[in-house]
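Lab manual, section 2.4: Encoding a predicted structure.

Procedure: take the sequence of the chain (162 residues), apply the prediction step described in section 2.3, and record the output as structure tokens. A sample record is shown.
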Amino acid sequence: MKFFYGLLALCLLGACNGSPAVSRQLQPRGVVTPITRCGGVGTLVELRISNCDGRCNFIAGTPYECEMDFLPSGAAPALILVVDICVLTGFCWTVLEAEIPNSSVQPGFKYTAKYTIVPNDIFAGETLLFKAHLIRAGIRLEEICVSAEIEVSAPVTAAPQI
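Recorded output:
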């Protein structure tokens, strides 16, 4: 049973193919604060989520575009993105785990992992811990882990007209 839906929109942008990537930004992405480093040997630069500035309050059923800037500690032929949602008592659900296509990285370059999440209304009214991990494929070495507390609200529904 999935309590959050995960969509992998794009994997990595950086010094790929020697040309910059330009993408249209559909929703403003704010910097998430506070964040906690929860592991990894790489360097996290910043976590941004659409319609979020500071602490995030998600509305169930709404897609949120996430971007995580990082510097890898070493070369990797591919990365795996893992997104966990945890209740504050410590129990976690992995809601997304996928190898990112064309995600070869080299140390010394900054990359951006992009993905989209859609919270389910089962957690409406709850405070949760959102965790995003980037793991080197093959050797399963964790490059980055970042976490942040989030709130999930019920979707706003229009009152029935009589």
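Check your result against the sample. Residues 58 and 152 are 5 Å apart (CA to CA).
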